[in-house]
Structure formats: structure tokens, C-alpha cells
Design a protein that fits this description.
The complex is a heterodimer of chains A (268) and B (235). With 268 residues, chain A is mainly alpha-helical. Chain A is 75% helix and 0% strand. Chain B has one domain (38-234): Rossmann fold (3-Layer(aba) Sandwich). Chain B starts with a helix and ends with a strand.
Chain lengths: 268, 235
Amino acid sequence: MQIIPLSPLDLSIAACLVIALALLSVRMELGLGRQIIVAGIRTTVQLLLIGLVLKALFANVHVLWLILMAIVMLIAAGREVMRRQGRRFKGWWGFGMGTVSMFISSFSITLLALTVVIDLSPWYRPQYAIPLLGMMLGNTMTGISISLDQLTRSSMEKKSVIEARLMLGQDSAQAIQDIRRDSIRSGLIPIINAMTVAGIVSLPGTMTGQILAGAPPFEAVKYQILIMFLIASGTGFGTMCAVWLGSRRLFDERQRLRLDRLRKKTEP
Amino acid sequence: MLLFLSSIPARKKRDLRFTTTSHLAASTQTSFQNLDNKMESLQIKQLAIHHIGPVDLSIDRAECVGITGPSGAGKTLLLRAIADMEPHTGEVCLNGIDSRSMPGPEWRRKVRMVPAESSWWFDTVGEHFNGIDKDWLEYFGFGEDVLNWDINRLSSGERQRLSIIRSFSDQPEVFLLDEPTANLDEENIIKTETFIADYLKENETMIIWISHDAAQLKRVAARVFVINNTRLEQL
């Protein structure tokens, strides 16, 4: 089966829908009109660019190109995590915390999948490595930004509870354990929900793409299961890592709550 | 008043001699200078935090010191620094041992700040206590069933009294009380003052008591200070 090529006209029909959505949101005064248009333009430009990059990458397979690409993706994801924080950590921590967590979880799990599970040779075949890493980073990014946002917001709101527990002689881990648990939970719930409804309500992206491209459904399903597991574990470990780092950074060496290490509120 | 005093249940007295000798032994090994200090006391030296200080203050065993001053003068801030809840300069020593020589939580188990607004984070009152003296509950007008109460049904006065019971239950050595009777009616103010005075005598602890009410401080404290222009002045 051949994939049916899309013409620019086909895409502009879909684009009209987004423009209609933007117009409606302006009328409803949601304050989202501009954001929808900008996001739509960004999607188009970024995907066209990545199309060109992937084309070049597939033509010149080299591990260094792949590593460069992976680093660019990681930095972009790290910036996005930082941007989504209502109150992010001051200094390099704001960027570093999410980025390090994503690096640890997404990279190691993608590497494991490439070398052991899919068993590619060479392991860095960009047709597999880039989409896999992209999916890992995209989902881990969501989990980490939700959980870090929850962590910092609850710490602000529950300052008096955390401090009361410290004053009673509890250590910092005890004083923040409820908040830490809730933050990790809120980061993990989206992917747990996605696994729960996969195949019943939603046909996830990888599988849909492969079926559209003419792959046999059963093979597509197996890949989808693999991807789901990788994403769930990557998101989970990444989220735990970020919340752990974050909740340590909220306290200093005397185990005092240091909310002054957070920036003033910015609109995400 | 006498009736109150006699009805306050006595708590097991700390074995002071043991703590003294062990601290002495520990400090002779580290530094002889510490021997010059009063061993049984809280010593605050050159403590400064934000605009407050430097503050020097020494409190003896079984002594209650009152601090008053207009709101915004930094009374609470000072207590937070002593409890090591806030970065500060200068040093605070308990029985000759510097707060920085032990982890923060260990210090705060000995030097207990009781904030003006108490916090409750579990669903029921009882979960916030590990071991509670039933006589204390009774003294403050609670039945044992209070432990099963939902924290949302507590009035501000009940919260304050329970907060005092909670903080006094695990026997710290120093209490930093921030407006401990602000939400109480007159009867309960007297009850609380009596309770604390008796506890102080019984256990020979040390107390810093912050209040807007200078008359109250005259009743409960041996010495009263006022924060005047960032400094402590004895009244």
C-alpha cells in the first residue's frame, strides 16, 4: 500500500479550522487567539524544518550528527519545562533540574530500547532513534513540568504547614513528603490514563502513523505497546528524579525551607 | 489560682545531672573555652537577621524572658532565627553547644518554636500527636475524644491550646512562644500562663515569650525586653 501524499491545499483546509478556532476564541475573549495562531505557525515551521533535518540526517548516517540532534532536542525540552513553571527555581536550577532529569530518564531508556529491545545495527539508525527519543522527551517533559509546577506551587501554599513540621523537629524529607507524593502523582496520572484508554478510546500516535503508512496492524500494535511502556517508565523515573531534585533544592543545608530560591510568579 | 496550680499534672522531671555531665564531657574534648560559658543556658551572641540585631541575650535554666515591641519590629523573625528557621549571622548555643554543630532538625527538637498560627495537616487531631498526656487535655478542657476530631471543626482557640499541648508533649529544652495566648479568652489565658509557669518550674526549661501585651509579660517573665530600633532593650 502506498501512502497518499498530502497537497498544500489539503493542509490549508486543516489550517482553516485552526484559524476558525482562533477567531472564535477572540470573540469569546479567552485571550488565546494570538497564542493559537503563534502555536500553529510554530508547528508548521518547526515540523517543516525537522523534515529537512531528518532528510539530511537519513542521508548522512553518523553517530555524531545524531548526538548533536539529541542535544538540541534536550535543550529545547529543558527550556519548555522551565517556561511552563509558574514559579521556577532561580538561576541555573530552573533549567537544569528538568533537563538533567529528562537526560537521565529519556536518554537511558531510549538507549536501552535501541540496543537491547529493538536490537538495531547500527544502534543509532536515525529512523528509529530520533522518533523514539522525540516521543520519550515529549512525554517526560509533560510529566516533569506538571510535577515541578505542582511541587513549587504547593510549597508556596503550604509554607506554614511545612515550617510547622520543621519546627516540631521533623527533617525536610518528612516535612515535604505529602507534597512530594502529590507532585509525583500528578506528573504520572496523564500517562497512566493514556495507558488505560489506549486502544479503547484512543488509537495512539505511533500505531496510527504506522497503519496510515501501510504497516500490518499487529506489528503496529506491538510497537505501540513497546512505546507505551517506554514512555510510562521514562515519564515516571524522570518525574521522580525532578521532584526529588526540586524538593531537595527547596531546603538548605540547615534543612530550612528556602522559598526565596523560587522566582516571582510568571504566567506560564 | 492555687486551685489551678495544684491541678496541673506533674510531668516526669528530666534527669538534669545526666545531661549536664554528658555535655561537659563532650565539650571538654572539643574546646576549653566553652567551660567559661554557663553550661545550663541558652546563649545568643551577635545574632543578626535582616534589619534586626545584633542581639546578645543569655537565658538561664527555669527562666522565662519576655519580648515585646510594635508589630513589624521583627519579634517573630528573631524567634525564627533562634530556631534556625531562617538564615542569620551570629551564634546560638544551648548548654554550650553551638546550633551549627548539629543538624537543623535536631536543634529544633531541642529549641521549639511555637508559631502564632498553628498548622494541622492530617485529617484528625490525634494523628498530630505521638503520645499525649490525658491529664493535659483535661486541664485545657478537652475530653479524650478530641483526638478523633476533624481538624476543620477546631476553633482558633482550640487550635492554639492543642498546639501548646503538642509542642510541650515531647519535652524540648527551650520554648520560643510567639503570642501563645493571642486567640484565647481570659479564662484560658490565665490557665495557659499557669500551665507554662508550672511546667517551667517543674522541668527547668527556658522560655522566650513574645507578646503585644506588656502586662502579660510582666506576669510571666523574669525579664522583659522591647525591640527598639532593631535592638533589644530591657524594660
